[in-house]
Amino acid sequence: MQDGNSPTGEGTTPTEASTASSFGAPVMASEPGSVHVIVGSERTRIVLSGEVDADLGADLQEATADAERAGLPIDVDAHHVTFMDSSGVAFLARLSTRSPTRVRLIRVPPTVRFLLEVTRIGELLDVVDEDPGSDMTFPADLGEERG
User: Fold this and answer.
1) What are phi and psi for residue 23, nearest 5 degrees?
2) Phi, psi (5° rounding) for residue 89?
3) What is the arithmetic mean of pLDDT over 65-73?
């Protein structure tokens, strides 16, 4: 027997139907976290995605060390972060206290913005809604069609 809140499977993909909550709304599958450091000519960009939690602890420490070695201003792109716990907050605090310039946090999702406000770590960072672009340089022919 189904009530108005029970998932019917109609109009949902097999993945959505199999992960529907008891309220009938699709539940997003958790995405493992990742951290990538990209060193440009003028800035270092750290790209976070997925679940930024204790499982990424060693990677976050390595990213901090890589960014420090580069000695450039730091951007952290958080656009694809789906979850963040105290490990991620500690990472942002560590970056902000070790960097000689203010760390710029780019495209912050609501869940991360909430943590920044509650922990007041946001006061140590420049939070930017739009991506200012990067200074990453690539070979001139990368992306061009060859005839």
Assistant:
1) -100, 5
2) -65, -45
3) 96
Q: Does residue 135 surpass a pLDDT of 90?
A: no
The structure's pTM equals: 0.71
CA angle 49-51-52, nearest 5°? Answer: 80
Q: Would you tell me how many other CB atoms lie within 10 Å of the CB of residue 23?
A: 9
What token pair was written down for 94? 């560590």
As a whole number of angstroms, the distance between CA 115 and CA 112 comes to 5
Q: What pLDDT digit, counting tens, does each position of 4-25 carry? A: 444 444 444 333 333 343 444 4
Instruction: For residue range 107-124, list pLDDT tens digits in order.
Output: 999 999 999 999 999 999
- Tokens for 62, please give them: 């390595």
From the CB of residue 34, how many other CB atoms can be counted at a distance below 10 Å? 14
Cβ-contact 113, 89 below 8 angstroms: no
Distance CA 1, CA 103 (A): 54
Closest CA to 52 of 24, 88, 101: 88
Q: Tell me the HSE value of 132 on the side-chain side, using a 13 A CA sphere.
A: 12
Are 55 and 146 contacting, i.e. CB atoms less than 8 angstroms apart? no
